[in-house]
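User: Quick sanity check before I run a bigger batch. Here is a single chain. Can you write out its predicted 3D structure?
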Amino acid sequence: MHVIVLAAGFSRRRGSPKQLVTIDGETLIHRAARIASEVGEVIVVTTPEFPVPFRMVMNPANDGIASSIRAGVAACDDDVLITLCDQPHVTAEHLRALANANAPIAATAYSGTLGVPAYFAREFRDELLSLSGDQGAKRIIEAHRDVVKAIVFEDAAIDVD
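Assistant: Done. Predicted structure follows.
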């Protein structure tokens, strides 16, 4: 399994790169990648401005979250766990709970919704690769609610924006 850390956004709402926000002496991008490395093989989807000591995949299109998801999924050929660099309270324990949920899709439940971080079995690869624009993985989660296992983690609602 690969853990894909999405960290290529422009931080338009914030006005400055959230990837470089520091918490406890560590940038968000490094923190997310380090935590992901405790769970699986890491792929950080980013841009050259944010280097990390993990496998990096550049997002050449960078035209929305879907292009980052496509870049990360295209870089591997197995199950994936997708997480964001701007959810500072996500823990390795939560990511492990998603990965070990024994379900084709395991999504994080918070604030009355389901979203990322989320685990997707390889069978959803083509759907992940077909996402476009600002369409994230939530569309796939919603389309397959009958096979989704929800893992509650309210702190995922907190992001840097």
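Strands lie at 2-6, 22-23, 26-27, 41-46, 56-58, 80-84, 105-110, 113-120, 148-152.

User: Great, the batch can go ahead then.
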